[in-house]
Amino acid sequence: xxxxxxxxxxxxxxxxxxxxxxxxxxxxxxxxxxxxxxxxxxxxxxxxxxxxxxxxxxxxxxxxxxxxxxxxxxxxxxxxxxxxxxxxxxxxxxxxxxxxxxxxxxxxxxxxxxxxxxxxxxxxxxxxxxxxxxxxxxxxxxxxxxxxxxxxxxxxxxxxxxxxxxxxxxxxxxxxxxxxxxxxxxxxxxxxxxxxxxxxxxxxxxxxxxxxxxxxxxxxxxxxxxxxxxxxxxxxxxxxxxxxxxxxxxxxxxxxxxxxxxxxxxxxxxxxxxxxxxxxxxxxxxxxxxxxxxxxxxxxxxxxxxxxxxxxxxxxxxxxxxxxxxxxxxxxxxxxxxxxxxxxxxxxxxxxxxxxxxxxxxxxxxxxxxxxxxxxxxxxxxxxxxxxxxxxxxxxxxxxxxxxxxxxxxxxxxxxxxxxxxxxxxxxxxxxxxxxxx
Length: 438
Fold this sequence. Notes:
Strand order of the largest sheet: 1-2-5-6-11-12-13-17
CATH class of the largest domain: Alpha Beta
Oligomer: single chain
Shape: globular
CATH superfamily of the largest domain: Luciferase-like domain
Structural class: alpha/beta
Number of helices: 14
Distance between the termini: 20 Å
Number of domains: 2
Number of strands: 17
Helix content: 25-40%
CATH topology of the largest domain: TIM Barrel
Radius of gyration: 23 Å
């Protein structure tokens, strides 16, 4: 029997790849936009709906980075509202473990699990930069090993809180309906990161514990996922990279007493459909050019060069000045923590070999649509990735919201169902059911 494909829908926003200026784009804030995308995902029998989180407006040269989608409402609040207009769809939110406290997060997620009848999920993330930490009293900088140590203990503490209610902690009787048994919700945690005790005031949710997602790709992140996560939100979307990542992470599970099926690997992907392959490729290039304007391209390079490049023509050659390897002009952009000097050298070689302008280079290196072609071609490619162990499914990230997955649900999903690799109806009620997790 072929492997079953797992699908999730991402409502993007903490990025500059959402084409909010497209005539087909709707509000990034109105609840109606979240509701439409979620209802479409549920119509397509997706496993879950996913919201990212940004805790600070990013800046460029001391000014708000106006190319991002900003002003996004708090994720768990949105998902709590979506619980009332969906029935089966899982509801996943990113919640930061660096700037929150276990009791508060555990309580909010347990509440969502009750409101949704067992459909809550938590994408556990960390934050490395003091820039974001300036919004919080404690400050924000933690070394990578330290932030994963905090994240592990944070998650372990949250689980202690959820587990403090035993399955029989609520007992009904004819007179009062329900009463709490002695010791229900009682907890005590003593550790390097947290020292808390008391009584957890939200009973155990329908799933017992919310589903845990994790997105780290570093060795520490992979180990954290192997030991504690139910789903990895991966960035490895090519066959070769996906297979290597899949094998590496799945091979780590045994040491924690876990099976390969206990962890689902779902890369974030995009798609573009056309009546022909050529039409789809043309549409994909048009979308990429929408996503990377001249201003976007210059600001992207400035984050690497660490210099003001506003005097350069985005349709001209790459800057001839050397990068300033200090803090630079862009803050809060965590994707550039590596060797920026080496990146500049590599990009210059690429631009020289292909005759790229600044904008051409930005279009090339900031990613492209993962699956491009006819609906049949895209369905075949998705299935190949799953059946050859490059992943267990996909998180679909549309470039336009809220209608960005309509074509996928209407054209690609039926073909996957015909192949027998995707459900035609939900067979369970909780997100753990959908993901085939124990």
